[in-house]
Amino acid sequence: QAKQLGRNRYHLYDLDAAKDLQTRHRELERIRRALQHGEFRVYYQPKVNMRSGQVVGLEALIRWQHPEKGLLSPLSFLPQIEQTPLIIDVGEWVLHEVLAQMGQWLQEGYRLSVSVNIAARHFQHIDFVFRLEAILSEHPDVSPHLLELEILESAALDDVVLMREVMAACQGIGVSFALDDFGTGYSSLSYLKQLPAETIKIDKSFVHDMLDDQEDLAIIEGVIGLARVFRKQVIAEGVETPEHGLLLMRYGCDCAQGYGIGRPMPAGSISHWISDFQPDWKWPLWADDCWD
Ligand code: C2E
Ligand code: MG
Ligand code: MG
Ligand code: MG
């Protein structure tokens, strides 16, 4: 009896596994088809300097305009492909799309620097630098100096020596780096010293809680202090209210990004957003009485 039960269970498990595999396969195929059929979009979110109120650049964020389900967040489809070669196809599509858009903006008189998120698996691919150069050369009107790559702090720690080399090679062609979601990895400070990233992005989870959580505030203070010592620019993500912005500014944070400043939006809305963005009324942070 027991033996039979066991065997049945084994069978059930086997069937489940096969079904899982099939579902996964179908999902991957659907994402591949979305890429071929042009269902992905790139949204752009502004980043501003908190002291001057100037727009310092944009972050490119992928979306899936699904014909039935509507606009989907990257968190609903990127994790499925993160460990497959498809992440490289999607990543390269984003790079092309962003560079073409930057060229378009240049023609309209906007010289905007844009950061693109790169998955660890993509960045660690043997051909990454070679392919990046090839993609850049297809957009000769856009200076590589306008392109920044965001890599996760946690990914950067996979293999510090490799990361360091690839980053240096990219910097050799003019591309710069930001360490994304900083503080959520388990980085030892000595790793930070070894990574040549120009910018550190404070993860939004700390910003979210900093107004009522002393520990999160201490982490933010620590990261900003660290950035200063290592001569890196620091930007806070997830800045939703002027209270966040004011406190961050008081602690010496350079730049901010978040719903409180501007939501991610289609490329076509950016020029309007920039000309409408008047720091002094849009966000009280820049009002006279907020200065120091
Ligand atoms: P991330 O790079 O840390 O991007 C910031 C995320 O925070 C974005 O979510 C953005 O929409 C969201 N956000 C911005 N301001 C606020 C705010 O004030 N409050 C809150 N709660 N959230 C805010 P999104 O667009 O859903 O992207 C999620 C993650 O997906 C990104 O996190 C990034 O890791 C990844 N991702 C997005 N686009 C790409 C891409 O093209 N390639 C790769 N490899 N990853 C991408
Ligand atoms: Mg990012
Ligand atoms: Mg982030
Ligand atoms: Mg994140």
Helicity range of the residues? Answer: 40-55%
Q: Label the structural class.
A: alpha/beta
Instruction: Name the poorly predicted regions.
Output: 288-292
Instruction: Give the amount of beta strand, in percent.
Output: 15-25%
Radius of gyration: 21 Å
* Number of beta strands: 10
Q: Regarding quaternary structure, how should these chains be classified?
A: single chain
Largest sheet, described in full?
8 strands, mixed, barrel
Organism: Thiorhodococcus drewsii AZ1
Domain EAL: 24-278
Protein name: Diguanylate cyclase/phosphodiesterase with PAS/PAC sensor(S)
Task: Explain what the structure shows.
- The protein has helices spanning 2-36, 78-81, 86-107, 120-123, 128-137, 153-156, 160-172, 189-194, 204-209, 214-229, 242-250, 267-276, 279-282; strands at residues 40-49, 55-66, 70-72, 114-117, 147-152, 176-182, 199-202, 233-236, 255-256, 265-266.
- The chain is globular.
- The protein has 292 residues and is α/β, with parallel strands linked by helices.
- An 8-stranded mixed beta barrel has the order 1-2-4-5-6-7-8-9, surrounded by 5 helices.
- One magnesium ion binds at residues 59, 117, 150, 180.
Structural descriptors:
single chain, 292 residues, alpha/beta, eight-stranded mixed β-barrel, 13 helices, binds ligand C2E, binds magnesium ion
Q: How do the helices and strands line up, and which of them pair or pack?
A:
Elements: H1 2-36, E1 40-49, E2 55-66, E3 70-72, H2 78-81, H3 86-107, E4 114-117, H4 120-123, H5 128-137, E5 147-152, H6 153-156, H7 160-172, E6 176-182, H8 189-194, E7 199-202, H9 204-209, H10 214-229, E8 233-236, H11 242-250, E9 255-256, E10 265-266, H12 267-276, H13 279-282
Parallel strand pairs: 2-4, 4-5, 5-6, 6-7, 7-8, 8-9
Antiparallel strand pairs: 1-2, 1-9, 1-10, 2-3
The structure holds ligand C2E and magnesium ion (MG) (3 copies).
One magnesium ion binds next to loops.
